[in-house]
Amino acid sequence: MNKEISLSRKEIEEKIYLIRGYKVMLDSDLAGLYQVQTFRLNEQIKRNEARFPADFMFQLTGKEWENLKSQNAISSSWGGRRTLPNVFTEYGVLMLSSVLNSDRAVQVNIQIMRIYARLREMIVSNKDILLKLEQMEKNVIRHDAEIELIFRYLKELLDPAQPPRKKIGFKSKIE
Fold it and tell me: pTM of whole model > 0.85?
């Protein structure tokens, strides 16, 4: 019977980065979650290269790696890396579960997929909120123009600088 592995949502979300427009996870972070050595994880990737096209996995450039380390305070482990890290998109992480057959890898992947799904839901709900705000802003702008017109008419009515109007209507001789 599989023992349930519980990772905190925050623990996984902190390991998701936005690079080249993709939400990705580093090979070393995934290896840590799967409790395997990074070079073993990458070894499996090389053996199954056809399963990891460019939209599933790619290697960071030197500049991307430096930016990621400086922006996210990623420490290089003892001795540092000899190669630039591979990063995995959501699809790549999903494909890893077919390459790494351990129970832990499957359990961890299930949790990671749930986090990715939650992130997608948040993005969609934020888009809905932004659309509603945009509609409200348009209404407010229209109302502002209408209120401005009302104030202009009120000022014209209350402005004593206008010459008095001639009375209209029936004139009596008594005036």
Answer: no
Confidence (pLDDT) at 88: 93
What residues does 58 pair with on adjacent strands?
A: 87
- In the prediction, which pLDDT does 78 show? 47
User: How many CA atoms lie less than 13 Å away from 22 in the CB half-sphere?
Assistant: 18
d(CA 126, CA 163): 56
111: region left, alpha or beta (phi > 0 left; psi from -120 to 50 alpha): alpha
| CA separation, residue 68 to residues 60, 64, 85, 86, 108 (Å) | 10, 6, 11, 13, 24
Question: 121: which 2 tokens?
Answer: 């839901």
Cα separation, 28 vs 151, whole angstroms: 65
Give the tokens for residue 55: 């939209």
Under 8 Å between Cβ of 89 and 55: yes
Q: Mean pLDDT, consecutive 10-residue segments, the chain of 175 residues?
A: 67 86 90 88 90 92 88 61 88 83 77 80 73 76 79 76 71 70
Record the tokens describing residue 170, joined without a space: 């029936």
Task: Check residue 85 and report its DSSP letter.
Answer: P
Token pair for residue 161?
A: 């600088």
How far is 140 from 133, CA to CA, in rounded Å? 10
